User: Fold these one by one.
Assistant:
Number 1:
Amino acid sequence: MQALYAQLLVGLINGSFYALLSLGLAVIFGMLNIINFAHGALYMMGAFCAYFLLSIGGIGYWWALLLAPIIVGIFGMVLERTMLQWIAGLDHLYGLLLTFGLALIIQGVFQNFFGSSGLPYAIPEQLRGGMNLGFMFLPVYRGWVVIFSLVVCLATWFLIERTRLGAYLRAATENPTLVRAFGINVPRMITLTYGLGVGLAALAGVLSAPINQVRPLMGENIIIVVFAVVVIGGMGSIMGSIITGFALGVVEGLTKYFYPEASNTVVFVLMVLVLLVKPTGLTGRAA
Amino acid sequence: MKSKFIASLLLGTALTLAGGSIASAGDKTVKIGALSDQSGLYADLGGPGSTLATQMAIEDSGLTAKGWKIDVISGDHQNKPDIGTSIARQWFDVDKVDIIVDVPNSGVALAVNNVVKEKNGVYINSGAATSDLTNAQCSPNTVHWTYDTYMLAHTTGQALVKAGGSTWFFLTADYAFGAALERDTTAVVTANGGKVIGGVKHPLNTSDFSSFLLQAQSSGAKVIGLANAGGDTTNTIKQAAEFGINKGGQKLAALLLFLTDVKSIGLDIAQGLNFTETFYWDMNDQTRAFSDRFAKRMKNGAPPTMVQAGVYAGVMHYFKALDALGENPHDGVKVVDKMKSIPTEDALFGKGEIQPNGRTIHTAYLFEVKKPSESKGPWDLYKLVGSVPGDQAFTPLDKSACALLKK
């Protein structure tokens, strides 16, 4: 029984990465209608950015949490301005193919320079060690990841669903012409939204760097799972992504306990089941 | 007119036949295919470095000066047996490759083993670990150079059991390699009075090991045996430190650890780990000289791993056999037989031999990862703690299940 509690908690920890990443994807899809396949590569860039900040500039983890999302976010905005905006009105497939190609290029460039086995990034001094919860040894850093990502997820949800800025954003995606008539710069807004989504991916990358190796292919596997999360949660639904992200982490953790060989596939089995029963996803609205 | 035509046809045929036989008598062409994981989790320990090692062997062999024409091509098997075999088939059928080298990933290695046998090529495997390559699935076309799961189990595994690691829990990569390493280590543990009390199989290329580590932790086993490799091992070791596994009194047994893995984990976390390799760049003047030349040509300046060193030494030995034969007969079995008849000796692995089952035996070394304070340079990572002679480290011939031995 104790082991089960431990697996639930570990699932929640992984779920926080899924939630953060799927949140960014959902924001980008919901606002820009782009299926952002470059998300995994941008997550990887976040981790590398933290590594560079430390090894070149001597800037530690705490500043990296702030700076890496901004730097990678700006890179994302450049991508949006130079490439993505030209395919805005086209079918989803074009965005998917373009971002998939971008992901391959970005990963390829990093792999070319840094190999495949990864670079070390230490857990910050203040978050080392762990505590004995009775049923498991919880590394302090993992606890921090859960709390921090939960706060970021809820803040993002609040920003988009409950503030005036969020209302503009949602209106701009519904009817850009009308919103532009009110004097709001819609293209700039879209660029900033893409930057926000990318920033969230980079933030997840920084959080992940001390746990996983900083590797060029670190985003390649996780992105597939995260897409399943977004689909199960309902494409574009912010709250759906957050809840599904955490929930799937737990389901995956339990699978690792009961039947580890299936841990990589359980998410997709769930996705198939959900889509069969509810094609719009758990919280998605019908298109 | 008609007779003239027939005469010229006959003459032409005769000339072609003669030309053909002249060409085959002095055929000094060789094509080498370096088949590796060029982009995935084993790319740093083999990959482009293995192609470079092959290239260096060609240059160092001196055969080109003797009129040989030797080419090397490389391929990426992406850790998928189907891709590996289709590349191998194309190389033999279309590109006229004579020899395939490296091939890390035991699943791919065993699949390619069958293709090379079918096409009667030469197969010098350095990257794969499974001991089945020279046992149940041995082939007259195959030489297994650097290391294997039997050797890892009988060096690292044995040393840890003798040091008091009586109960074991395995974290095993769920494919041919993990299964072979777990099987061979289990045999050693039980033979030495230890006991395996549990294990978990994880998918290849997993990034999060916390669930598995928790199971290992709660099992209470004294030793957690890592029957995985590359990126999987580095992530496990890193996350084990995070979960306080070592501090809790359990010992991690990294059964297979490469230079690039230790570099990637960092000495802070990896220090004190015991493991086995058959080559380390900083062993003596000869290994250092080779490694310097190698590192200068690697994009990231890394010295060779034991897999890359094994590719170099294996190809060098292949050239010795060709030189002795005087030509390339393009007959895999004949060349491999010649390789087996010559004792192996090179700057990287020292003296050894290729056994009739295709297993190359040479000394294996037990290393310990240095403390950060002991390390004097970016690649100064290992401390030598012991060595095991080749005939004790590798499968004894009387225990080998290879059908070639039953002639």
Note: The CA atoms of residues 2 and 135 of chain A lie 5 Å apart.
Number 2:
Amino acid sequence: MKFKEHWVAYLFLSPWVLFFLVFLIYPFFLSFQNSFLDINVLNPENTRFVGLGNWITVVSDGKFWLSLFNVLFNQVIFITLSFVVALLAALMLNEIEFMASLFRTILFVPVITSITVAMIIFDFLVSPVGPIQENLLGIGMLDAPVFWKFEQWLPMPMIALFSAWKWFGVQMIIFLGGIASINKSLYEAADLDGASWWRKVTKITLPMIKPQIVFVLTINIINGLQMFVEVFMNFDLQGGPYSSALTPVLHLYQTGFEQMKMGEASTIGLLLAVIIFVLTTLQMKITTKGD
Amino acid sequence: MIKNQKQQWLIYGGLIAASIMVLYPFFFMIMNSFKTGSEIMHAPNAMPEEWSLRGYIEVFKAIDLFRIFGNTIFVASAITFLNCLLSSMVAFAIVKTSMPGREFWLKMILSSMMIPGILFTIPVYMMMYDWGWINTFRALIIPGSISAYNIFLLVQFMKQIDNAYLEAARIDGAGEFRIFFKIVLPMLRPALATVGILTFMNAWNDFMGPLLYIRDDSMLTLQLALFKFQTNVPGGNLEQLWAMTTMIAVPVVFVFFFMQKNFIKAFTGVGVK
């Protein structure tokens, strides 16, 4: 009789179960199976079992590790920059009452802008003929225009700068939510002890918003390692000069959709998922230590 | 916490500076859309010499912008409608019924958010290819019709609905269907606005989906159309490019200013255990 009683509940749950089976479980196994096959979409009848072949190819391919290095290089700059900016903005917004919601709204605008639009604007602003470089040349801070897209070490920091501008708003809002839930009496007690603003931030605010900080870092790692549109729009599928803008997803896209090697591309996807999983678990272990 | 007037001024100064840095790029976008192509190239810092609408006019001649807007609105609306309906049904089953295994399902949904999407790019593409879904809107809509994050948000909201309403209705002999559609959904309206807006925005801004699955120019969505427009004739259609960029960005920002509370709600409260 149990089932009859709950049939509506099961019916309501069924969209998720279907989604779970069709778009999560099945593709996961497909991906796993593909990683042992040599598949070319154009002539699928030639598919053959290659065992660990794809895995060996991907792991021994310097390009995969280079792409991983690039994206980590990018993330170190992005995470530091956006974390500092978001935290400062949240702390400032928390101190004011008049027009707080207007400032909060303005600072959130880049988040709702699409990457495509934002990238076109950014590309113009920092291009060798764009306004920023023209101003820098004008005041003599720059001797010659910088073609950052042709340099080996500039693409990743530039994209990190772009991403920090684009995404700091999300982190700011999450931090604000955390700060708002801190018990005010903690600050009052600190005020009685004559604690400075800096001391209150480091001893009360930061420790109290640790769950938000962990959440933000985790999301950043998960999203950051999957960077694609930013580099795809600016650099060809090879990933720019010296492959310095090649990211793992660009590498996967190139392998799967240009070279049509779906098996190898699946392997890249799986390997990257494993790396993301390990990094997020590790990061959560470290940041939640002592709780 | 800072009551000192001087420090307050310092904070407002900081916030104004930050706002200018955030809005500065948009200012250039709008200025460029009114400039002529050569002005964009040669006088990047200057204001438009004479405000020209040529970019706006030319871009409508160059591509079928109405159709592209229509495609995007259709896909994003379908995804938003399905998400609001399906995700709240799942949340209802988990929060408001006595179905066994509710905790288990919720845990499973939450942990599925931790799986990186990249894992599914290739296998889902192959599935779509086998099913003949390439170059159809189905490929964009169906996989996006339900999301773990939306279920999670709606579960949080649904927990706040008092069970007394539901009990009263059950005593009156209302079935679960009636309870869901007549009582819970209407009470969930503010939450659905939040989920809906967030979903619509993500679908509107989606790039990877259309890039993988859409081939025909008649089926392009805005983001992919903008990208193709940027790469097709480099430098040759500058004024049109900026007019198009402005037309895509401004409505979104405009809507956001009216509905910012709903956006903000979707991000606060997450990460709190």
Note: Chain A touches chain B through 94 residues (CB under 8 Å).
Number 3:
Amino acid sequence: MERILRHGISERIKDKIFLITILSPALLLLCFSIFIPILKSVYMSFFDLSLTNMTNPVFNGLKNYQEVLTEGAFLHAFKITVTYVMLIVSIQFVLGMLLSLLLNKEFRGRRVLRSIVLIPWIVPTIVVALLWMWIFQADYGLMNYVLMKIGILAEPTKWVADPNLALVAVIVAALWRQLPFMATMLLAGMQSIPQELVEAGTIDGANKWQLFRHITLPFLKNVIKTVTLVAIIENFKMFPLFWIMTAGGPMNKTTTLAVLSYQTSFIELDIGKGAAIGTLWLIILMIISAIYNKLLTEK
Amino acid sequence: MSKFNKIITISCLILFLIFLLFPFYWMISTSLKDMRAIFKLPPEWLPLNPTPENYVKLLQENYFITYYTNSIKVAFSTTFICMIASMFAGYGFSRYSFKGKNTCLMLILSTQMFPVISLLISLYSIYNQYHLLNTHFGLVIAITTASLPFCIWMIKGFFDEISISLEEAAKIDGCSRFGILFRIIFPLSKPGFLAVGMYTFLLSWDDFLYSITLINKDHLRTLPSGISIRYLGEFAYDWANVMTVSVVATLPILFLFLFCQKYMVAGLTAGGVKG
């Protein structure tokens, strides 16, 4: 009591006030435009609601979910999304590892090279989509020209309009933008490997593959875990590339969950159903990352 | 290294470089060609008669300038707000321990998982209610929060590295808590701030989904949504024009990157390797 009187307010209370002051701007922002909307969207998924009629929502229980799950569009979109995510993340990881191993070697100009390979990563996604649409363009696109010149293709292909190839086109564009980031992160991890460890391994007679398998990989485990999880989540959410390059077509072959829920809520204006898709999607993502964490911590 | 190995290594590296850099070159090269040169087969690898015509045409289009200024406005405001909020929060999480701190941090990071579209559905109705639709303020708030979680984690990593004894010394000298923050901590973590700022600017400049849903007045649109509405015809694309727009849309980010890529990479890897 005497101390409090002497110092005015006690140090602990001052700390508390200070802490609340500095944490609140970020937390308020997050609450206002992330936490509350997410809760609200889960809530909305139980109502019959459309964008044109927002004022009198009608509670309809699980009907939205029932519709979403029985119509087949959701399952189809889920399959497409999983195919896309698995392909892009695994290709990206293998190539990223290869590129970072190459950039980790000693050679002249590697510093410059390390920064210029990052360029695709800063290109805005919409520009990435447009650029690759131009390259994949059927009549005058570079891709068809080059592939025909080296004898892989016999005639021009309509990449983005071909049901079997549209997803490939999107994956190439996504890979172009995401590979530099993956490689840079892996490279940063590699550079933190103590040189003595590699030297000791070499003295013990380990070859390149053994060094990679028993020193580099275990050392990179945390980095790998972080970057692949980030890549999985980012690609699960990927919207602009699909929307601009294919808009979900042809024949719904590129309708991912992101495209489906955008179409349902903002084109068909069925908000309740869109929210139900979003909620299911969120649950799936949470399950995936829980399994993922478990798999990687058990080892 | 044997000669064979060396050749393999170099050719792999060259293949990677072609894949990563050629499309970028192709974008610039296309933007400098006229209509005839674009639709020539075999393609003109180097623009034989480079012309600034496409750029001149683009800069005469009023709406393009409007989208551009809107994007700059939104990106700078987002970056500013996000830097302040994440600096404060990151410092709090780094230096103070309190009940539920770890849960709080995990919760913040897990927001990165939320599918933006399902969030947008309700954000749209909330914005509608508070008259934030079709305002830059609303857009800035939405993009700021999209960037915040990662920024808080990134900057917290930087603060964790700064020795606490410096702060104690300042405290003995009679420095207030905010004084410590502004006079000691902030100047010391400049690389961290640049990383956070750059990350947010990139994210904001790249945003497509928020701006296309929260804004539907043409004069308020930002670059990505403006481009998608204005330049994407159903069938015929004016590719020279589209590539010119693309180059100009990439320029600010490219300059920013060239100036602070060192900090950018340091920040990302510090946050990512630890997180």
Note: The first helix of chain A runs from residue 2 to 7.
